[in-house]
Amino acid sequence: MRPAAVLFDCDGVLVDSEPITDRVIAASLGRHGLSLAVSEIHALFLGGTMAGVAEEARRLGAALPPDWVDRVYEEMFAELAKGTPLVPGISGVLDALDAAGIPYAVGSNGPHRKMQITLGQHPGLHVRLRGRIFSRHDVARPKPAPDLYLHAAAALKSPPAACVVVEDSPPGARAARAAGMTCLGYAPRDDGARLAAEGARPFHRMEDLPALLAL
Fold it and tell me: FRET label pair with 184: which of 53, 166, 202, 203, CA 20 to 30 Å apart?
């Protein structure tokens, strides 16, 4: 059955930004006394907020200054601005949704400025999403709370139960489940077990998504 609307996470689903931001976080934490491999950063913090990263990093022994979140965001923005590629196949997914007349939106735990930098590098994509890009700053609670996806569904005038969420992180999948939405879990680099454990249906190639949406 086709969805009434499709709600996309941004990082790792629309833009392949996570390898860049993981490296920035790893380098910054290393300078503040917490040495973690990039793979550990990804496993620990995927889909969370930077405030959550700071809290956990301090618990693990990092000596972070009070303004660390602001500082590391500035480092991230500078690196992302050098070039953030689209996730392969995502343009074809949006083409298929447009052809089917199915609306879509973005719901990200990241700030609007980050999405302006990453999505803004791809004007064709950015213009398609105009007015439908939502951040954790638009709602009371970030993922894994359902607020962001409920907000996006309301903006599209679509019943939550008729929406499909496309996510790549366990917190995002939990947010979709809490919102009463079906979740498809994009897992290009692993078997998707962590997403499946949160109720998502894993898939591994973005080119397969139109068929999963019955387009």
Answer: 53
The torsion angle over the Cα atoms of residues 93, 96, 100 and 101, rounded to 10 degrees, is 60
H or E element at residue 167 = strand 163-167
pLDDT, position 141: 96
Q: Which helix (H) or strand (E) holds 5?
A: strand 5-8
**Measured distance CA(150)–CA(154) in Å, rounded:** 6
What distances in angstroms separate CA 177 from CA 82, 88, 109, 160, 200, one per listed residue?
Answer: 35, 26, 16, 10, 8
- What does the alpha-carbon distance between residue 22 and residue 8 come to, in Å, rounded to a whole number? 20
Please write the tens of the pLDDT for every residue from 149-180.
Answer: 999 999 999 999 999 999 999 999 999 999 99
The topology under which CATH files domain 5-16+84-212 is: Rossmann fold (3.40.50)
CATH number of 18-80: 1.10.150.240
Establish whether the linkage from the previous residue to 88 is cis, with ω within 30° of 0.
no
How many CA atoms lie less than 13 Å away from 50 in the CB half-sphere? 26
Question: How confident is the model over 51-106, as pLDDT tens digits?
Answer: 999 999 999 999 999 999 999 999 999 999 999 999 999 999 999 999 999 999 99
